[in-house]
Write a structure and sequence with these properties.
Blueprint (H helix, E strand, L loop, with lengths): L1 E7 L15 E8 L2 E9 L6 H6 L15 E4 L4 H8 L4 E5 L4 H10 L4 E2 L20
Parallel strand pairs: 1-4, 4-5
Antiparallel strand pairs: 1-2, 2-3, 5-6
Length: about 130
Amino acid sequence: METIVAVTSQNKKTVTKHAGECRNYLIYTIKNNEITSKKILELKDNEILKYTFHEDKSTSPKNLLYDVDILLTGSIGPGGVNRLANQNVTAYVIKDKDPDIAIEKLIKGTLEAFSPVSHGKHHHGHDHKCSNRS
């Protein structure tokens, strides 16, 4: 089975924050616990998640990131996590800064990842450990 993982990397070198505003992603394809490809995805202003979530007024907004299985980032809010989940994309906040190490940990099942959650009508990001086995 193939898994596609997007990692926010505005500088194209390290894991960066602000998934909603990020224009550059490292896209990893993993098959049989091996990285089979790694490429850079550069988004235009009208392709970033913030635009898709808040400005695209079409009835069924599309985003290139909806084609990935997992999104790893330095930060994302609960609204973004929920919108991605509705597109079958699982988003995790990670503390690792090296994307290659984060992907290796993901493959091994040792990545320390957190998923922001919301409680009722109040939106607060909380760190909750997630079991992350591929």
